[in-house]
Amino acid sequence: MIYLYLIATVLIFLAARKLLSPIKSPLANPLLVSILFFIGLFSFTPLIYQDYATANIPFIWLLEPAVVALAIPLFCQIQQIKQQFKAIMVSCSFGVVIAISTCISIALLLTDDKVLLLSLLPKSVTSPIAMAVAHETGGLASLAAAVVIAVGLLGALGGFSLLKFCKITNPQAQGLAMGCSAHAIGTAKAMEVGNEQGAFSSLALVISGILTAVLAPFFAWFIGIMTTI
């Protein structure tokens, strides 16, 4: 019976995408609308969220092969990626360090909860990597996943508008910015905008995930020092 929730998840998302497709607004995001729908559903009905979460475990399993499938747009842009690889690595490296540093610095001004800080550390990488990093460093994987979704939605809703406001029009730069800051959800939005943006966003997503996993122990050590002062 609870697996009807899985079917409902698919149907609500597809219906939202169909209904919102004519609306040219960042807020017309089917993922955002689907999340708000289910928040309202569980807030105002006696339905149990835990049953919903159990029913949708198959979607969690699909996250990892979905990340691997991002290799397809990368392959289509392989020549341009080879030509710009050094600039891509430098950009993503700075992006990861700045993303983690600014997040942790602001969070430290508000709390000294070590578990919360460690859960925020992988906020800008895709959910499977973020959950693994949070688990290994002592954070909460579930909280890390929730933060990742919030960050991704924020990037998908306002990322391209902000890039346009800043007069960043190069499709490669746009893709790198979206993938580095808004991971898979931002990459999905980038693919809607253009193939080149989608390919470079996919690449930034992968590089940022690897760099975050490598740098996580150092930042976890730093958090440990700051929370004991």
Tell me about this structure.
This protein is mostly helical and 229 residues long. It folds into 2 domains: 55 residues, no CATH class; 166 residues, no CATH class. 82% of the residues lie in helices and 0% in strands. The protein is built from 12 helices and no strands. 34% of the residues are buried. The model has no long low-confidence stretch (mean pLDDT 86).
| Shape assignment | globular
Strand content: under 5%
Q: How is the main sheet built?
A: none
**Radius of gyration, in angstroms, nearest whole number:** 18 Å
Counting DSSP E segments of at least 2 residues, the number of strands comes to 0
Measured between the Cα atoms of the first and last residue, the distance is 51 Å
Number of helices: 12
H and E order: HHHHHHHHHHHH
What structural class is derived from the secondary structure elements? mainly alpha
**Helical proportion?**
over 70%
Average residue-wise pLDDT: 86
Number of domains: 2
Low-confidence spans: pLDDT under 50, at least 5 residues? none
